[in-house]
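Listing 4. Sequential folding, example run.
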Amino acid sequence: MRQFVFADLTRDEFAGFAAHARHGNFQQTVMMADLRVAQGQTIDYVGVREHGAVVAAALVATHGSGLTAFSTIADGPLCDLDDRELTVFLIDHIAAMAKRRRHAVHLDITPEQPYRLRDAQGEPLPGQTGEPDTAMMADLKAAGMAHGGFTRGYTAVPRWRFLKDLDGVADGAALLKTFSKRTQWSVKRAQSMGVEVRRVGPDELGVFASIERQTAERRHFEYRGEQYFRKFAKAFGDDVHFLVAQINTQAYHDAMQRKRDDLQKLVDDLDAKLAQRETTKLRRRHNEESNNLAAATKRYEEAATLLERGRFIPVAASMFVTVPQETVYLFSGSVEEYKPFYASALIQYEAMLHLCVERGVPRYNFYGIDGVFDDPDSEGRGVLEFKQGFDGYVEELPGEFMRVLRPAVYKLERLAHRIRG
C-alpha cells in the first residue's frame, strides 16, 4: 500500500500545483478562491503528499452554514481519477474534513477530467481518446460519490465543452486558415467594416456590463451584474481579459467611401466601353457591377449615419480567463442592431491570437454547449454552430457527483425543500 498523507496546503503550494496540473483550470486557482471568499464562501486548500511531493489537490468551497452548509469542488479535484487508490484516499479525507471542519451536509464535485472526447459534430473520436473513461466512474463510485447522471443542457458548471487545440499554430494567418470558410469570411468582413477589438480596464467595465445586460435581457438568461465583473477583475487581475469590439466609424466611413468610389469608376469605364461596342458579356458585367455599386452606396450612406453617432460604437464584448493550461471564454454579449458587423467572430479570433498563440497557451476553451447535436431547434443550436465554425472538438465531462455527509440532516433539508417547492 502506498504511503499517502492528507494535509492542508498553503496558498503558494496549491497555486504551484494547480499551474502544472494536467486538468488545471480557472475554477481551481487561488484567484477563484479569492472571488469565492468575496462572495461569502469559506475555502480550504487541501492535498495529498506522497514521498513528500504533492500528488493531488483541491480547492474546496463551503457555501452557507448550519443545516444548509455544503461543500463543493468545482472542476476538480486536481487528481488522476484513474488512480483508484489515490482518488479514494483524497475524497475520503476531503469528505471527513468538510464534515468535521465546515459541518457540511454534503460534498459535491464536478470533475474536470473528461469522460469522453468527441468531434465537433458530437461523434466519439476514433481510437482510445473516444472511449468512455469507465475507470474514472468506477473509482468515484468506490470513493462514495453518487453520480447525478449523464445530462444534457446548460448547467452552472458545464458538462459539455467545446475546445480548440492551438499547438502548431504560429501566427494570425495560420490561425485564420483553421476556421471554416464561413467563419473566415465573417472575421475578414468585420475587419473590413472598421471593427476593432481592444481590452478594457476596470474604469470601463460599465461598457462591458451594459452590453452583457442587453444580451441577457434579449436571450432571457441571468445577468451577473457589473459588481460581479468588478469582483472578478479584482480577484484575477492580469489573468482576466475584458475585450470590447467597437466600430471605428471614421474608418468604416472611409473604407465604404473608397469602395463606392472604386465601383463608380469601374461602372463609368464599363459605360464608356458599352457606348463604343455592346456585348452580352460586357452588359452582364455592367449589370453586376452596377448592383455592387448600389449596395456600396447604401453602405456608405449607413456609414455616414453611424459617423454622426460618435467616433467609436461598442457593439460586442467578451470576458476571458487565462491559466497556463488554457484560455477560457466565459461571458459575452452583443448589440443586436450591429449583428451584420460580425464583431463577435472577430473577438474570438483576436482572443485566440493574442491570449493563446502569442503567449504559448496551448488550448482555447469555448466553454459550455448544451450537448445536443441532432436537433436543429434546440436551445443551444445557435451557440453550437457559432463555435463549430472555429473548428475544434468536444469534451464530455462526467458531470455532477454527490456524497452525503450527514444523512439525517440531508433528509430534513430535502423534505423542507419539497415543502417550500
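-- end of first protein; second protein begins --
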Amino acid sequence: MMVHEANFDGLVGPTHNYSGLSTGNIASLTNSHQVSNPKMAALQGLKKMRFLANLGLIQGVIAPQMRPDIKMLRRLGFNGSDRRVLQQAAQHAPKLLTSCYSASSMWAANAATVSPSADTQDQRIHFTPANLASHFHRSIEPQTTARILAAMFNNDNHFCHHSPLPTSEQLGDEGAANHTRFCAQHQDQGVEMFVFGRYGFDHSQLSPSCYPARQTYEASAAIARLHQLDPRQVIMVQQNPLLIDQGVFHNDVIAVGNQQTLFCHQYAFLNQADVYLQLQQKMGGKLAIIEVPDNKVSVNDAISSYLFNSQLVTLPNGDVSLILPQQCRDNPHVWQYIQQLLQVKQGINRVDLFDLNQSMQNGGGPACLRLRVVLTEAEYQAMNPAVLLTDSLFRRLQQWIELHYRDRLVENDFTDPALLLASQTALDELTHILKLGSVYDFQRV
C-alpha cells in the first residue's frame, strides 16, 4: 500500500505583524512593534513549500485566517461602521485590536492534531482543531480552522473532523506542536507521543512558574480518546517546566521526531530517561534517539536558533533531511554541532537551510509553519487537490501575493479600513484558487 507523508504549510496572511502578543515566546516579545513585511513573509514561506515539493514530497497549502476579525470586535462592544469599529478599538482597547489583526494562523503546527488511519480504530484520519485557549489572539482561530480543514479533507469515508476541545484553562490544546508520531513505515500502526506542560486539575504536580504551560495533560488525553487510539500505542510525556520558563513554549521548540528518529535536547522532558525507555519499548527497540548535550547546544542557543523547530523529513530516495532556519548557520555553537551530526550519520544525513526571518522574528520556524498529514493513496485521491502545491499553483500564489500584500505594516495602519477591505478581497480570491468554498465569516453573511 502506497502511503504518503504530506506537509501542509500555513500561508502567511496579509496582516502579518509584530505586536508581541505571545507570552513565553522570546522572539515574539523581543521584536514587538517592529515594522513587518507581509509580502516578504508570504514569499519566504512559499519558497520553502516549493523546495520541499521539488524534493518529491507532497506539499500543500493551508489558507490564512481573515484579519482583522471585525466580527469579534463587534462582539466585544464596538459598533458602527467598520472604520468606526477600528477607531474605537484603537482608542479604547489597542491590545484587542492588535489581537484581532494577528496573522498567527500561519503557524500551522498549532492548527490541529492529526492521527493517521493506520493508528485509529475506524481507519480514518482524525483531525482535532486546537482550541489555543492560552492566548486570546489565537483562541479566535479554531472555528475558521475547522472550516478550512473540512474543505481540504472533505470526504467522510476517509476523514473524521472533531470539534475543538472546550476552551478552558484545564483543557488548553496547542495542536501538533506538542504531538509526534513514530513508526517503522508510515503504513504501520505508529506510536503517538503527546507532550504536555502541566496538569489542568492536579495543581500538586510540577508546572512552570514564570510562563504559561499551554498544553495540558487532560487535553492530550482527550484527543487520544477522540482519535480512537490504542492506549498501548500512546505515550504521555511532560515537558520540562524549567525549560518552559526559559521560553520553550511548545515541545517543537526543543524536540522533533519522525518515523524512527527522535532529535531532542538533553533537558527536553521531565524524567527523560523514563521517556526514552517507554518509547523504545513501544517501538520494539527500533528508535534512534539523538540527544543534543547542553554543553554543545545550550537551551538559549536552541531557542534563538530554533534548531529543534526544524522539519525532519524522509525524502523519496531515503535521505533524512533536517529543514533548518538560516539562524542555525548564524549561531557558531549550533552550526558546529550540525557539522558533527552529519559526520556521525546517526539517522540524519543532510540539512537544508531557509531564510524565514519574517516568521522567525515572531517566534516561528520551519516546523511551526507546517501540519504533517500521513495519507494512503485512497486518502490522497479523496482530498481537495486544489490545495496541493504544483508549479502552476506556486506561480498563481506568487502572483496573488505580489498583487494583494503590502511590503510594510505597522500598528498605526490598523485603523485603516482599506487594509480590512484588501484582506477580504485577497482571501475571497484565494478561496476560489484553492476551491475552499465560503470558509470566512464575511463570505457567510
